[in-house]
Inverse folding.
């Protein structure tokens, strides 16, 4: 699984180490998961979709095409409300 984090100030993706127990989507809203950013336990139903932490797929696995990364899901990992607020603040001015 290739996970990248969007850095608004740099307008680019960087490698991101996933936190074990973090998720993108599960059915049980009451399940306790790990926030993909801070790693704290949080009930899934209280999570937000990360604006920055995304699952990626290599469009060009050989890496010969500049900008050959593609966000295949257009869907982020689940983050806790505090990290969501931090992401919203970080995104200000870069949209
Ligand atoms: Zn968090």
């Amino acid at each position: 699984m290739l996970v990248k984090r969007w850095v608004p100030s740099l307008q680019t993706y960087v490698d991101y180490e996933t936190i074990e127990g973090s998720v993108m989507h599960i059915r049980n809203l009451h399940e306790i998961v790990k926030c993909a950013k801070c790693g704290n336990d949080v009930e899934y139903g209280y999570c937000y979709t990360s604006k920055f932490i995304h699952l990626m797929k290599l469009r060009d696995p050989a890496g010969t095409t500049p900008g050959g990364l593609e966000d295949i899901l257009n869907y982020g990992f689940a983050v806790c409300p505090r990290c969501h607020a931090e992401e919203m603040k970080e995104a200000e001015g870069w949209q």
About this structure: Residues 3-92 form one domain.
